[in-house]
Every structure is written in C-alpha cells, then in structure tokens.
C-alpha cells in the first residue's frame, strides 16, 4: 500500500496558498509534489493537495491501494463521510477526488497530528516562502 502525506496552507485565510504531497512506498519517498495556488483558503489548499496527489498517482500507480495521511481533521472527517461538505468549492474538489479514486483499488484517509506531516508541510512552506519573497 502506498502512503501519501498531504498538506495545504494559506498565509492569511484566504491568502497566498500552496499544496504539498509526499508519496512513499515501503517508507521510501518516490515522489514529492507542490505548487502555488494563488489566493485560497487553508481548506481549499488541503483538498487541492489530495487532488494533485491522486492525479499523479493515477498516471503512475493506478489500481493500487492508497493510504492518505492528512493533518486536517475537517478534511479527514469529510473524506470519510463523517462530516457533510457545505462549501461549494470544496464539494467540487470532493467530486473530483471521488472520480479519481475510481482508478484505485482502495483509498483510505487518516487524520494525523501536524508533527507527523512535516515533509508535506515543508513543501507547502517552501512554495509560500518563494512566492511571498517574489512579491
């Protein structure tokens, strides 16, 4: 089972936002991805990280089992069907995630403490630091 660590963040909420993801196979990093999103909220950034990771995985590792680790309790609860999604933009991202999930055997989402998501968080902050210093 591939492990996928995702994070998103915005400086200000909304504000300049970025996403990051790290894919591991047997504990070894096989892909790091990150990107700047413009102005967005933290929640939109969290979901975008999952979408971008799934898009990369669909191209390179379809039909696998995936375990996603996120430090957003809200995203984990919504993705696991515990909380309803009321925000229209997040609902769009959730539909995209569900569409992409069809290319895999099983996809799981687990909430983890922020301290256990340092690699994805580092990617988000690197992108934001570059963007903010470029302004």
Chain-averaged pLDDT: 96
Q: Within the largest sheet, what's the order of strands? A: 3-2-1-4-5
Radius of gyration: 14 Å
Output the structural class. alpha/beta
How big a fraction of the residues is strand? Answer: 25-35%
Tell the overall outline: globular
According to CATH, the fold-level topology is Nucleotidyltransferase, domain 5
Query: What is the class in the CATH system?
Result: Alpha Beta
Major sheet summary line: 5 strands, mixed
What is the number of domains? 1
Could you tell me the number of beta strands?
A: 5
Low-confidence runs (pLDDT<50, min 5 residues)? none
Q: Spell out the CATH superfamily.
A: Ribonuclease H-like superfamily/Ribonuclease H
Order of helices and strands: EEEHEHHEH
The amount of helix comes to 40-55%
H/I helix tally: 4
Q: Could you say what the CATH architecture is?
A: 2-Layer Sandwich
Description of the structure:
The protein is an alpha/beta fold. It has one domain: Ribonuclease H-like superfamily/Ribonuclease H (Nucleotidyltransferase, domain 5), CATH 3.30.420.10. It has a 5-stranded mixed β-sheet with strand order 3-2-1-4-5, with helices on both faces. Helix 1 runs parallel beside helix 3. The protein is globular. It starts with a strand and ends with a helix.
């Amino acid at each position: 089972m591939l492990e996928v660590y995702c994070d998103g963040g915005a400086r200000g909420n909304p504000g300049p936002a970025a996403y990051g993801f790290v894919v591991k196979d047997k504990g070894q990093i096989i892909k790091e991805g990150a990107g700047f999103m413009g102005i967005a909220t933290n929640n939109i950034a969290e979901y975008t990280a999952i979408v971008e990771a799934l898009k990369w995985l669909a191209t390179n590792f379809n039909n696998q089992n995936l375990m996603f680790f996120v430090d957003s309790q809200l995203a984990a609860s919504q993705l696991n069907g515990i909380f309803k999604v009321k925000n229209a933009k997040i609902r769009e991202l959730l539909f995209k995630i569900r569409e992409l999930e069809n290319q895999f055997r099983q996809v799981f989402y687990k909430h983890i403490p922020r301290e256990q998501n340092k690699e994805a968080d580092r990617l988000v902050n690197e992108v934001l630091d570059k963007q903010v210093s470029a302004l």
